[in-house]
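SAMPLE LOG
Freezer: B-3
Tube label: C17
Construct: single chain, 146 aa
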Amino acid sequence: MSLTIQDAARRSGLSEPTLRYYEQVGLIGPVDRDPSSGHRRYREEDLDDLQILACLRAVGLGIAEMRTYQANRTRGHAAAGEQRDLLLRHAERIEAEIATLHVHLEYLQAKAALWDARDHGDAAAEAAANERVQGMYPRLEAMVLQ
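STRUCTURE (predicted):
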């Protein structure tokens, strides 16, 4: 049984343009074509690759990393260490992004507390919030310089 690009897109969660692009850059395929129409026809087996790519894309891997991941998959156990290292490097990047987002969240909460104190005319709370905001500047500046 073969699937149209619409079927493959729906079942994989990837858009039709993304499927075409992934074929163009060599992440999938070449995809079989219908002899009479020339339209792409995906096999059920192709869906495994598409679903893996959809997951990798969802966690933020780039095209080059997805290409490496796919190449390592074809090598099987021989590439297990490389596959692990690729995923752990990306996990480290995500951890760094999470740490950055925590600082951003803390800053926004401190600024909101500052304005809340001003809104309520609470000078002591305003001073405490302002001190908290001021104390965050070195962390924010360090992030900008990275």
